[in-house]
């Protein structure tokens, strides 16, 4: 069974998503916003790479964390598609202007 975690980076009102997938073998893959699947020897290594790229885990993000990044949590919609090819087009989202 795969364990997916969503990570994001904010560039103004643009949200760039990454999906970290922990695999049964103890390794991990990250689907990046370009649709590339990057392989890592462990989930910890994948998380470190995401943090180095200034991504933050959606799980555990609170309203203050979101506000610090320029958006509200309720504005976020985690990308969903039937397969990774379709998902690629949804990995960068531009949020409407804040009121």
Automatic annotation (TrEMBL):
Annotated protein name in UniProt: Uncharacterized protein
Organism: Novilysobacter ciconiae
Organism ancestry: Bacteria, Pseudomonadati, Pseudomonadota, Gammaproteobacteria, Lysobacterales
């Amino acid at each position: 069974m795969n364990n997916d975690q969503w990570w994001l980076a904010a560039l103004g009102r643009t949200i760039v998503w990454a999906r970290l997938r922990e695999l049964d073998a103890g390794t991990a893959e990250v689907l990046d916003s370009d649709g590339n699947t990057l392989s890592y020897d462990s989930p910890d290594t994948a998380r470190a790479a995401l943090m180095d790229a200034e991504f933050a885990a959606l799980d555990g993000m609170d309203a203050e964390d979101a506000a610090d990044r320029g958006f509200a949590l309720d504005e976020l919609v985690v990308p969903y598609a039937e397969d990774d090819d379709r998902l690629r087009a949804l990995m960068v989202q531009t949020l409407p202007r804040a009121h």
